[in-house]
Backbone:
């Protein structure tokens, strides 16, 4: 066919054919690329629902049970060789899952018992040696003690101090009871920490303190705990306790003042009952009688005596190495933004509930996240799974981490999600900063309730509480404290059940869990489901799922409640004005967020706009911090959520104002109003700073 053509014509035909082939190839490649792009877009869209559904469906109660069994094979008190072995177990788990794994050591001051004894001598001449450990506690279980209690001896009349609150000493004084030189017996609770109860006793001349926990308790269990009045390593307040870093001396007032002035020991409810029933002296005040009715101990009088108590305790404070272990999944688009899921690993004894029900859940979340990675999932932001050490001594591991990384955490952290005692019994409980309320409720609708068929956690929660009851985070009892109250990072704390009867005792074992706490490990599945889904949303959602409108509404409720407590010429107008500004800013940024969430089809064009919006959502919580901190407790910076010194009010918000009301009672009206008004102004400015952060513009 080409034979009759000239060479030039032949060449032209060949070129046309080549160009046609190139054109067709281009079209094929273009269509294939377009198809791949569409498939890629579909993958991105299912990155939310597809991977979250897989996360839920890949839960395994058998696997969680196995993790817990391994973690609770023996006691693992922080700073001991057994605690080191538990750290290796967690680290090896992350490594097997091919996660980036990191171990960070800190050298800190811990406290251990050497010996102790308590003997009760009764009026008839008989005596009773108080056991300082549980019957059949097993090898390696530390004797019951209070960490950081000073060594000391005492011999004095036994006297009952109720909870050891200021009002309790007032009742005793009204009954003519002199507690000076006595050995006091204190009920654990009443709104006081262990250390606060011991300090109040020391201030009134009590020579030593025995502390017991009553109620629905294992009567032979002895509740260990710390009596230090601060968080973190006592020798490195405000900075990370790294090896070869600065350490204060033990005789430095900043260290010495953190520890009680008199010795103390915990005892069992059974032992306390034997002593309390032997007391004479004044009768129990009527209000105490009512409160003690269901306490598990029946007795009539408060003493002092005639029973005498011979008390002796020797402890030691020594430097120890603790280990924080991290499993990290780097973000694909925003690797410099961090979502942190944390749980502590150390335990007073076996720690099946506290904390290793949470550790087992964390390990299972790691397993399921690793599975998602193997399916192609890449989180938008970096996820850090954090296993803290030495929480039981005063949140030391997490506090040292926050103090060492304060600037980066404040600038780059999205949220901190905490689980400590994941499963204590029935009933779901959650605490959160209010901008996370909507997300928490939505996630609770996706997780099956472990105790009720064909219903979700949200449905059961709403019915049992007559509406969902999200608690807040003013307390200082787990690792969220330093993240929220020092660094201003939005936080969540989750758990199933509360007030379990073997808390901090040698009975907190795997056997207790499979008999009473969660025999089928379905509650573990539920907690890890909520915990893990929260992490997935915060790591993957293009626009952070924060809503500050509930925050403004909550602050308005707080301020109205506060107005019913304040007296005289004190005005709350400044706070009300600031809340209105925050509410306006919250509504505006929520409208912005809704628009950006609808525009996912233009994702590539909106990256910078989303990033700017997310930064405003992240930083608003930091606005509630104040550099001066709370009065006499400057480490605590948050002016909405944090610990107060109590006083007579039960308000668990605005701690600076609550403290001002309490500490100014001795002042005249003008001075008192000035002290309280200053704290009101500080809170108003903090709320206004949060509003400015949401707006994103300079004034």
Residues:
């Amino acid at each position: 066919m080409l034979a009759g053509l000239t060479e030039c014509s032949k060449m032209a035909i060949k070129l046309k054919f080549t160009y046609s082939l190139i054109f067709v190839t281009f079209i094929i490649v273009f269509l294939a690329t377009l198809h791949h792009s569409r498939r890629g877009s579909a993958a991105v869209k299912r990155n939310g629902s597809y991977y979250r559904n897989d996360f839920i469906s890949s839960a395994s109660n058998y696997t969680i049970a196995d993790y817990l069994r391994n973690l609770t094979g023996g006691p693992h008190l922080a700073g001991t060789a057994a605690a080191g072995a538990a750290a290796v177990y967690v680290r090896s788990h992350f490594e097997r899952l091919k996660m980036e794994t990191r171990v960070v050591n800190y050298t800190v001051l811990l406290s251990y018992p050497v010996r102790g004894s308590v003997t009760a001598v009764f009026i008839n001449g008989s005596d009773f040696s108080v056991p300082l450990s549980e019957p059949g506690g097993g090898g390696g279980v530390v004797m019951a003690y209070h960490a950081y209690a000073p060594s000391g001896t005492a011999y004095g009349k036994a006297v009952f101090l109720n909870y050891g609150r200021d009002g309790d000493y007032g009742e005793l004084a009204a009954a003519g009871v002199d507690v000076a030189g006595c050995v006091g017996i204190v009920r654990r609770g009443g709104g006081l920490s262990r250390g606060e109860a011991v300090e109040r006793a020391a201030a009134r001349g009590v020579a030593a303190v025995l502390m017991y926990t009553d109620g629905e308790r294992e009567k032979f269990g002895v509740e260990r705990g710390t009596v230090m009045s601060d968080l973190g390593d006592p020798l490195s307040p405000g900075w990370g306790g790294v090896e070869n870093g600065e350490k204060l001396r033990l005789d430095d007032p900043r260290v010495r003042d953190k520890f009680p002035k008199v010795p103390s020991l915990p005892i069992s409810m059974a032992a306390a009952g034997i002593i309390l029933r032997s007391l004479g002296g004044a009768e129990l005040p009527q209000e105490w009688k009512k409160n003690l009715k269901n306490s598990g101990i029946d007795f009539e009088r408060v003493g002092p005596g005639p029973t005498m108590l011979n008390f002796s305790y020797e402890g030691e404070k020594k430097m120890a190495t603790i280990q924080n272990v991290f499993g990290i999944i780097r973000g694909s688009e925003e690797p410099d933004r961090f979502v942190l899921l944390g749980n502590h690993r150390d335990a007073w004894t076996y720690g099946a509930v506290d904390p290793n029900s949470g550790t087992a859940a964390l390990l299972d979340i790691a397993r399921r996240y690793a599975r998602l990675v193997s399916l192609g999932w890449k989180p938008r932001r970096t996820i850090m799974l954090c296993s803290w050490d030495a929480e039981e001594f005063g949140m030391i591991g997490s506090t040292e981490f926050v103090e060492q990384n304060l600037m980066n955490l404040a600038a780059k952290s999205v949220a901190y999600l905490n689980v400590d005692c994941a499963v204590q019994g029935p009933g779901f409980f959650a605490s959160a900063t209010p901008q996370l309320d909507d997300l928490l409720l939505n996630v609770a609708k996706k997780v099956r309730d472990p105790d009720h068929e064909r219903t979700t956690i949200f449905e059961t929660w709403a019915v049992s509480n007559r509406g969902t009851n999200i608690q807040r985070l003013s307390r200082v009892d787990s690792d969220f404290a330093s993240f929220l109250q020092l660094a201003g990072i939005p936080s969540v704390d989750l758990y199933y059940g509360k007030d379990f009867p073997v808390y901090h005792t040698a009975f907190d074992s795997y056997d207790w869990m499979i008999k009473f706490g969660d025999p089928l490990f379905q509650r573990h599945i539920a907690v890890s489901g909520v915990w893990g889904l929260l992490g997935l949303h915060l790591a993957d959602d293009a626009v952070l799922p924060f809503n500050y409108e509930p925050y403004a509404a909550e602050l308005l409720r707080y301020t109205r409640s506060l107005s019913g407590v304040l007296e005289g010429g004190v005005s709350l107008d400044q706070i009300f004005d600031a809340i209105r500004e925050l509410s306006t800013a919250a509504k505006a940024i929520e409208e912005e967020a809704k628009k950006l969430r609808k525009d996912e089809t233009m994702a590539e064009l909106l990256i910078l706009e989303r990033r700017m919006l997310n930064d405003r959502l992240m930083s608003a919580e930091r606005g509630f911090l104040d550099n001066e901190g709370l009065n006499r407790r400057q480490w605590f910076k948050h002016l909405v959520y944090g610990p107060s010194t109590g006083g007579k009010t039960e308000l668990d918000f605005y701690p600076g104002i609550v403290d001002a009301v309490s500490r100014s009672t001795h002042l005249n009206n003008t001075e008192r109003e000035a002290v309280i008004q200053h704290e009101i102004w500080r809170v108003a400015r903090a709320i206004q700073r949060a509003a400015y952060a949401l707006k994103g513009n300079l004034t």
The chain is about 40% helix and 15% strand. Residues 1-45 have pLDDT under 50 and may be disordered. The domain at 51-108+319-540 is CATH 3.40.630.10 (Aminopeptidase). The radius of gyration is 30 Å.
